């Protein structure tokens, strides 16, 4: 069973330990890339389009739980980002 990728006004939270910032995400991505090679054969991706994406598993980096991660609303989702966050660097209050 997968979990949704958080939108712009959401984020993940581990209900087990309260972690808001560190997760290992296993996902499957189907994409289409436009690769441009120069005459020497070296190249790079100039366009990348995600055709489909499935988040298979989200594991909390702090406690290791895979069944306790939920999507919650960001507390400042209705305000524009203007500077540093008031949240602590660890994600804990």
How would you summarize this macromolecular structure in one to three sentences?
By secondary structure, the chain is mostly beta strands. It is 0% helix and 46% strand.
Which short descriptors sum up this protein?
single chain, 93 residues, mainly beta, two-stranded antiparallel ribbon, 46% strand
How would you describe this protein?
- There is one protein chain.
- By secondary structure, the chain is mainly β.
- The chain has strands at 10-14, 23-37, 43-60, 69-73.
- 0% of the residues lie in helices and 46% in strands.
- A hairpin with a 5-residue loop joins strand 2 (23-37) and strand 3.
- The strands form two sheets. Strands 1-4 form a two-stranded antiparallel ribbon. A two-stranded antiparallel sheet has the order 2-3.
Beta-strand content estimate: over 45%
Structural class: mainly beta
Assembly state: single chain
Report the total helices: 0
How is the largest sheet built, in terms of strand order?
1-4
**Helical fraction:** under 10%
Give the uncertain stretches in residue-range form. Answer: none
Q: Which outline best applies?
A: elongated
Question: What order do the SSEs take from the amino end to the carboxyl end, as H and E?
Answer: EEEE
Compute the average pLDDT.
86
Total beta strand runs? 4
- How many strands, which pairing sense, and closed or not: the largest β-sheet? 2 strands, antiparallel
Distance linking N and C termini: 30 Å
Please tell me how large the radius of gyration is.
18 Å
